[in-house]
Design goal:
By secondary structure, the chain is α/β, with parallel strands linked by helices. It has 7 helices and 5 strands.
Length: about 190
């Protein structure tokens, strides 16, 4: 599968990142509203929900490169509408982590290639201090601490900039806005 490159832009790229059911989508919507900018919904959710609804089938290794490409394509489309900042409700690193935690450490080379070709200014790591909500796709209610640790370790391993968000939605938004405002200020002085 041919990988499409990440569209170049002066917009800051912020990723909502973390285990399932930790408030990423809620936070992405709130921050997009606050900054009046575009956000990129999670490609995997409707893709895998359709697969589940049609076949009662779960994600396979073959799905992961499709999900990664779909997420990047959605990001590339949304960046055209962004206002200084784009908020991504997941990214390739989430797909990589999911692959490694669900397929005995395996990650397809395509995922590593895409990861090496992308850049994000900040990862907002969502904590597991919110209730887990069941749905057709979520599958790790008892492994939340282990999953959070793995997600965090990947950020440390790659030396990606991140901020852990804990607390209620209002507290998370306030902490995220403080960090993003600082990045926007730094970015504006570079321009």
């Amino acid at each position: 599968m041919e990988t499409r490159p990440q569209t170049s832009s002066r917009c800051l790229r912020v990723v909502l990142y973390g285990p399932e059911s930790t408030g990423k989508t809620t936070l992405a919507k709130a921050l997009a509203d606050h900054y009046q900018t575009a956000w990129v919904p999670e490609f995997a959710r409707p893709y895998l929900q359709e697969k589940w609804d049609k076949e009662q089938a779960v994600c396979t290794l073959e799905d992961l490169p499709i999900i990664a490409q779909g997420q990047l394509a959605a990001e590339n489309a949304a960046i055209q509408k962004a206002n200084k900042l784009i908020l991504c409700d997941t990214n390739i690193l989430v797909t990589k982590v999911w692959s490694e935690t669900h397929f005995k450490g395996y990650c397809a080379p395509e995922l590593n290639t895409i990861l090496a070709q992308t850049h994000y200014d900040l990862y907002l790591l969502t904590s597991i201090d919110v209730p887990w909500e069941k749905d057709d796709l979520r599958d790790r209610p008892n492994d939340r601490e282990q999953m959070f640790t793995y997600f965090k370790q990947q950020l440390v391993t790659y030396n990606f900039p991140f901020l852990v968000l804990e607390g209620n939605p209002k507290e998370r938004v306030e902490k995220a806005v403080t960090a993003i405002d600082q990045l926007l200020e730094i970015n504006s002085t570079k321009s």
